[in-house]
Amino acid sequence: MNKKLKTPAVDFLFDAILSLNSLEECYTFFEDICTINELLSLSQRFEVAKMLREHRTYLEIAEKTGASTATISRVNRSLNYGNDGYDLVFERIAPELVKKEQD
């Protein structure tokens, strides 16, 4: 964990996020706290991470998401050398993703 990141203000923000109970509550909160572009950038990075885990090429990812190769590279570096945060979340939501794809 990055010691510069761990502050009372960041703890307060993360506690707020952890208090959300539904997708609708997430939309309500994040629409207030983020600009549309910030939220779209975060979701783009998450989609890039998903596609990298599926072993998609940078070209495929760039075409589908509109992400730059620099963004794709940064996400790839996080997947390979980061704190495994993406892996943690993907493991937890995997059953939900499978269900959504079947519906």
The CATH architecture classification of the largest domain is Orthogonal Bundle
State the CATH class of the largest domain: Mainly Alpha
Oligomeric form:
single chain
Radius of gyration: 15 Å
Shape: globular
* Strand element count: 0
The CATH fourth-level homologous superfamily of the largest domain? TrpR-like
Secondary-structure-derived class = mainly alpha
Overall average pLDDT = 92
Strand content bin: under 5%
Note the total helix count. Answer: 6
Poorly predicted runs of 5 or more residues = none
The topology string of helices and strands comes to HHHHHH
Gap between N and C termini: 37 Å
Question: Might you state the CATH topology name of the largest domain?
Answer: Trp Operon Repressor, Chain A
Number of separate domains: 2
Q: Percent of residues in helical segments?
A: over 70%
Largest sheet: none
Organism: [Clostridium] polysaccharolyticum
Pfam families: Trp_repressor
InterPro entries: Trp_repress, Trp_repressor/repl_initiator, TrpR-like_sf, YecD_YerC
Protein name: Trp operon repressor family
Could you walk me through the main structural features you see in this protein, from its secondary elements to its overall organization?
The protein is mostly helical. The protein folds into two domains: 33 residues, no CATH class; 57 residues, Trp Operon Repressor, Chain A (Orthogonal Bundle). The protein contains six helices and no strands. The longest helix is centred in the middle third of the chain and has 18 residues. The protein is globular, with a radius of gyration of 15 Å. This is Trp operon repressor family.
